[in-house]
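Show me any protein, fold above all:
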Amino acid sequence: MPMISPKLACTIFTDDTRDASLPLRPNALLKTMSHHLRWHGHVVVGDVTLRLYKHKGLWQYDERDVRRAARVLTAVTVDHDDLVEVVLPGQRWREESSADDEDARGRVDWRRQIAGWMYHEAWSKERTRDRPYTEPSEWARIGENGLPGGLTWEELVTARNGSGSSSTIAGTYPLGLLTRGEDRWWLPRAYADLLDRWEVVDEELLERARLCSRCGARGPRWGGWRTPTKTGYVTMCPPCSGAEFTAYIGHLRGVPYGQMRVRKLRADDYLCRLCQSSRASVWDHCHGHDLVRGPVCASCNTLEGKGIPELLLRREAVVAHLLECSRCREERTLPLRFCSAVAAFHLAAEARHASCPVQPHVRHQGTTPSGHVFELSCYRHWTKRWRVEVLAAEARELVRVFVDQALATGQPGAGMPGPRAASDTNART
């Protein structure tokens, strides 16, 4: 096969679709780190799938697939006089449909994506206004122009143009063809039909990728059973992965990370310690103490290193994994970025804007020699923001309580009360 890099594939696709009437975004071919790649191993542009192949750690396309996709999509004729009405869902579509059906709730839906952009930008605009937030649904009311919250079409287009690939659907830019007339939204029929086919294609890819390659069992929708290999991702259920790879039992706790090469132990012989469903690929270690925690897959390694600390600490498996570092366990501590997350839990539970009962949003602003600095904002009064510093001594005590609770109960205990409210005597505002 004539294999080419994603960058060359993007160049070829751009050149071959220069006469296309579809609003294509060729940069979609560069998204080889996209979650879709893990989910089903393909990039979908329009209703055409392009498979990615992994060789020597690099993702590549078959050049013939790229040129075929360009021919098919260039052949689609967009007639701007042949329009079809686009019915967009209301702001509460998530609560109104399939609330108990995870599969249906997560299914791709281009109409919902466009509506989501509109409501997101209306909400963002509302947050910049210098007035209290009084009516929960005020910003979501639809105006005469069909947009919520007083949002204008120019504001929507400008904001989405600045959001990069998040303003595209199926490698295309729908706002370039969406129009308003007779109090309704319209798209060219050929383009709307293309997006409908994209939904079907993407769904079929996801369904195939959910099936265990060993036993055929059907797994979770969003790539939970996908295991990285040298040639790409394969789907393996936990029992099949457990039979294929060795379960890690903590036998390397306390071993310096630098000794792993001498011991010649391969992480990919083990099952990922965090997700317990994928083949491990690396030895994770505590960077503060340079001690091994255990084998993890590439996805879990990225999640543990770059994921949102406040969300990670709500997962029992993550807390237990962090405490596989014997020094962290003995000293009742956590890595620095997780220490700030524990302090954020405490502020969310204890701090308030005056007498307002609403739990504030807490954002970590940085760490100083004296402690952790946070910005707090009140959801009910969007323009009200204030700064709080949790002193280092109190942060250490909050972490110690958190770790003790996790070791005693096996539960993260997010939001547990600390010894004192940092917004009072031990905080600088």
Summary: Confidence is low (pLDDT under 50) at residues 412-429. The CA atoms of residues 85 and 226 lie 38 Å apart.
